[in-house]
């Protein structure tokens, strides 16, 4: 049985990836933040995963875990993944999003030297780290991590790749993110739990896809014959206004109208207005394309938020996948 080490396994991507790996017969060891509660509702998604509380900023502990597990593959998903939050905590963002990659590479090189084990490394990169957007603390940290991966590949022949992930969402996304803030807000307004929703710049354009599909691209990248850095996205962009309107329609509310208040305090210090993936490299190399469309994704997220509010059940495996999509 192959073994995968997944950092940040209790996050959105970690949960979908761990379930996919387990379904394929791979043993999964995952890191969670220290203090991860024994009654955390996300545990229901992680059945069979060997969980290890670990702060990825502790490089020595991270390297020791790699040595103990001796994995066949490592997926580094642990990160402070909010661009907005990175402006508030730039030093923590660098320590969490960039420095651990150095320790993972060192640990994998030691694993090779001492045990002859050639493990593969997937680094969750971001479209935010490329082009004109690379000026937030989040983007700079991700770009630094990408460079570590490239050096490991060029200088040490380590099978290490970056998946340049465009925005990908699911009902597991935290309400700290604007996408889930909108779907949750639409559900609350529809059920009479609130009257308005405060948002920032609605002209932002992003390539939004379904996280449950993107983890399959991660797996395919590590299984490929040669290490390739690839953009992962749908190739189609929508504005935040589009997402807002689709969410309100899915909640049965019609046009947002005066239920939405624009708050200047929610504007980022820097915000690039457009990101769109080129899906062709991943299609050519991996045979992977995103199948879940924008409308279906937003409608699914709203439906789950409505069910959460009505039922009082915060997490359920039934929330994971849009109707008609095989989990």
UniProtKB/TrEMBL annotation:
Q: Which Pfam families does the UniProt record give?
A: GDP_Man_Dehyd
- Identify the residues that the record assigns to the NAD(P)-binding domain, covering every copy: 5-301
- Entry superkingdom: Bacteria
> Could you list the residue ranges forming a coiled coil in this record?
none
Q: Which cofactor does it need?
A: NADP(+)
Please state the Enzyme Commission number of this protein: 4.2.1.47
Q: Where are the transmembrane segments?
A: none
Name the UniProt key words of this record, in alphabetical order: Lyase
Q: Which family does it belong to?
A: Belongs to the NAD(P)-dependent epimerase/dehydratase family. GDP-mannose 4,6-dehydratase subfamily.
Question: What name does UniProt use for this protein?
Answer: GDP-mannose 4,6-dehydratase
What organism does the UniProt record list as the source? Nocardioides humi
Write the gene name: gmd_1
């Amino acid at each position: 049985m192959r073994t995968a080490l997944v950092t940040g396994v209790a996050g959105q991507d970690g949960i979908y990836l761990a379930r996919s790996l387990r379904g394929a017969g791979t043993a999964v060891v995952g890191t969670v933040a220290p203090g991860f509660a024994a009654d955390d509702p996300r545990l229901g998604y992680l059945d069979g995963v060997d969980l290890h509380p670990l702060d990825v900023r502790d490089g020595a502990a991270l390297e020791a875990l790699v040595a103990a597990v001796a994995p066949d593959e490592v997926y580094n998903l642990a990160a402070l993944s909010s661009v907005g939050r990175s402006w508030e905590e730039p030093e923590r963002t660098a320590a969490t999003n960039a420095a651990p990659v150095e320790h993972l590479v060192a640990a994998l090189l030691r694993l090779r030297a001492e045990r002859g084990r050639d493990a593969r490394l997937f680094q969750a990169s971001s479209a935010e780290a490329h082009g004109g957007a690379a000026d937030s603390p989040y983007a700079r940290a991700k770009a630094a991590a990408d460079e570590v991966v490239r050096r490991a590949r060029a200088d040490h022949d380590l099978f290490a790749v970056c998946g340049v992930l465009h925005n990908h969402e699911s009902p597991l996304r935290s309400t700290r993110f604007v996408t889930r803030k909108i779907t949750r807000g639409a559900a609350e307004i529809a059920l009479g739990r609130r009257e308005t929703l405060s948002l920032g710049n609605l002209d932002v354009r992003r390539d939004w896809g379904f996280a449950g599909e993107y983890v399959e691209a991660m797996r395919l990248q590590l299984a490929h014959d040669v290490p390739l850095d690839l953009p992962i996205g749908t190739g189609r962009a929508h504005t935040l206004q589009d997402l807002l309107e689709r969410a309100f329609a899915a909640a049965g509310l019609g046009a947002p109208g005066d239920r939405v208040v624009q708050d200047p305090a929610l504007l980022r210090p820097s915000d690039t207005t457009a990101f769109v993936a080129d899906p062709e490299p991943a299609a050519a190399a991996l045979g992977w394309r995103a199948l879940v469309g924008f409308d279906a994704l937003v409608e699914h997220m709203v439906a789950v938020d409505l069910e959460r509010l009505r039922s009082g059940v915060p997490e359920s495996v039934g929330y994971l996948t849009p109707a008609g999509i095989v989990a």
